[in-house]
Amino acid sequence: MPTIADLRAAYAAGDTTPAETLRQLADTIAARDGDIGGYLSHDLDRALDEASRADLSLPLGGVPIAIKDLINVQGHPCSCASRILHGKYTAPYDATVIRRLRAAGAIPFGRTNMDEFAMGSSNENSGIQPCRNPWDHDRIPGGSSGGSAAVVAAGTAIAALGSDTGGSIRQPASHCGVVGVKPTYGRVSRYGIVAFASSLDQVGPMTATVEDSARLLQVIAGHDPLDSTSVPEPVPDYTAALGHDLKGLRVGLPREYFAEGLEPAVRDAVQAAVRQLESLGAEIVEISLPNTEHAVSVYYIIANAEASANLARFDGVRYGHRAASPSDLLDHYRRSRAEGFGEEVKRRIILGTYVLSSGYYDAYYLRAQKVRTLIRQDFDRAFDQVDLIASPVSPVPPFRLGEKLDDPLAMYLADIYTIPANLAGLCGISVPCGFAPVPGAARPLPVGLQLLARPFGEETLFRAAHAYEQASEWKNHRAYPA
């Protein structure tokens, strides 16, 4: 599949049309997605109708964009990959990011698979169907935005939107060999996004190239009065940040992110990427983020507490699954939620309710918020020394389906390098930086380089990620050869 930039050029030259692009996508989905499970649904007829009215003069005119299944698109199903909503809820309105995509001429096309209610790191918690890594169908694509990463990697989407609560854009982007951007908290409106953890969630682009991510973020970013957490910060021209060298840029390497638990093959790929950054003119500086060791614990207290409150609305009364013939209201609530929610969602609701309960709030939730402040202060001090922070995205390459399902703690630790950025409200990007040979894998598997910048520092992210991408060979690798 072409990139957004390629497609726009092809439209301008008259080499293809939005309708032809959609039909080609539909054919590719039919040929490949049965092995991957990246889509939960797609509506070609509706998309073709929109394509017939596409304004090709707009920034994303006629460009199809796949949408993670927790973002409301009017008239489309929105199930959050959960049995409690699947087949029972159709979005009555467009999320702000969808309104902005449409205003830029884009065509929402396809609902992508995910971990149920965005709770997971492997996409194995989808309540609808499994999703597989396009590079090796026995491996996970990452999560929770695994479907969005997989369809871009498989060439069954031009680009996609995902959401990132603790790494859910960057980690699957790394595992699938695509580019994923977690914007600064408050940079992109959350209105119309089904909430998991309201102080952590952020929507962002997943694309084949850094330039495409810059183009897509340009469109969806900006203040929204419908979202009280949206920040009235001007949106710069992200594409103007591309094509610059890295001279004078200081890049920090946190010693805590290169310690025990990092797979040697992943370390080697990331260290090679850091040397490439240095060869492009960046200055490499060792830094410390001492409270990193607490990040996973803090995250799973705060995120689960917020989830337990946000998911209380799914009670079988207003919409969603309803238990048959309940004996009373309590039985209705209990059975509807027990039948509709998957095991991981139930686990997190229970944990979140526990840490918010009387007698435990101060010991867990309040203390976690205090440590969250310490984590943010670690980054503040680091950004006094450096412009960017470089690290692995995940400590391990994509693992086998089912390998960690019986060990939730091992699954949670897979996000140890991504979670801190969400707790601190930073922006970050995953850009492909190589491949790791993995015993038993059909071929070497993708590895991502994570770059983090201070809040609203997306321009710096794009500058560095694009310079690295253009200087390296990894942009030319695809899961399915052209």
Beta content: 5-15%
Rg, Cα atoms, Å? 21 Å
Largest sheet: 11 strands, mixed
Instruction: Please state the structural category.
Output: alpha/beta
Number of domains: 1
Order of helices and strands: HHEHEHEHEHEEHEHEHHHHEHHEEH
Distance between the termini: 8 Å
Strand order of the largest sheet: 1-3-2-4-6-5-10-11-9-7-8
As a percent range, the share of helical residues equals 25-40%
Based on the coordinates given, report the CATH architecture. Answer: Alpha-Beta Complex
CATH topology: Amidase signature (AS) enzymes
Unreliable stretches (pLDDT < 50, length at least 5) are: none
Average pLDDT over all residues: 96
Shape: globular
Number of continuous helical runs:
15
Task: Give the CATH superfamily.
Answer: Amidase signature (AS) domain
- CATH hierarchy class name: Alpha Beta
What is the tally of beta strands? 11
What features would you describe in this structure?
The protein is an alpha/beta fold. It has one domain (4-255, 378-476): Amidase signature (AS) enzymes (Alpha-Beta Complex). 37% of the residues lie in helices and 13% in strands. It is built from 15 helices and 11 strands. The protein has helices spanning 4-13, 18-36, 44-51, 96-103, 146-153, 170-176, 210-220, 264-279, 295-310, 329-340, 343-356, 361-385, 408-413, 419-424, 458-471, and strands at 39-41, 64-68, 107-112, 160-163, 179-182, 203-207, 250-254, 283-287, 388-392, 427-436, 445-453. It has an 11-stranded mixed beta sheet with strand order 1-3-2-4-6-5-10-11-9-7-8. A hairpin with an 8-residue loop joins strand 10 (427-436) and strand 11 (445-453). Helix 9 (295-310) crosses helix 11. The longest helix is centred in the last third of the chain and has 25 residues, at 361-385. It is globular and about 70 Å long. The N and C termini lie close together (8 Å). 57% of the residues are buried. The mean pLDDT is 96.
